[in-house]
Specification:
By secondary structure, this protein is mainly α. The protein is 54% helix and 0% strand. The chain has five helices and no strands. Helix 3 crosses helix 5. It is flat and about 70 Å long. Keywords: Electron transport, Membrane, Mitochondrion, Mitochondrion inner membrane, Respiratory chain, Transport. Its main location: mitochondrion.
């Protein structure tokens, strides 16, 4: 529930059409107001990399995903140095802002939970 991805009410909201119709415009407004798309970032580029599950998930990216992430980080650094966002045509569109790292992080967290479960098994002699 908690961890590098944080707490999320998304599954509950997505299960209700009424809640989705109310919250989706607010979520889109907030994502645009956050400003990370203006620098070419995707949402998962903002995850804290110092967490062990995120580090493991980053190592599981394909070479293309790894290159694209590095390119986005360097391009945003350059824009930050210039003290202005990217040109409007270089912004990340909402349709391209997909969670590319989330499945890997969830997989790592599941593996860690399973490893912990097996490491703490108590074997009793009958």
């Amino acid at each position: 529930m908690f961890g590098p991805l944080g707490f999320s009410l998304a599954p509950y909201i997505q299960s209700s059409k009424t809640l989705t119709s109310w919250v989706k415009p607010l979520a889109n407004w907030y994502a645009n107001a956050a400003g990370y798309r203006q620098y070419g970032f995707k949402y998962d580029d903002l995850l804290v990399e110092e967490n062990e599950p995120v580090q493991k998930a980053l190592s599981r990216l394909t070479p293309r995903e790894h290159y694209d992430r590095a390119f986005r980080l360097k391009r945003a650094s350059q824009a930050s140095i210039l003290h202005k966002p990217l040109e409007k045509n270089e912004w990340t569109p909402a349709a391209e802002d997909v969670r590319y790292l989330k499945p890997h992080v969830l997989e790592v967290m599941k593996e860690d939970a399973e490893r912990h479960k097996w490491d703490t098994v108590v074997v009793e002699k009958k």
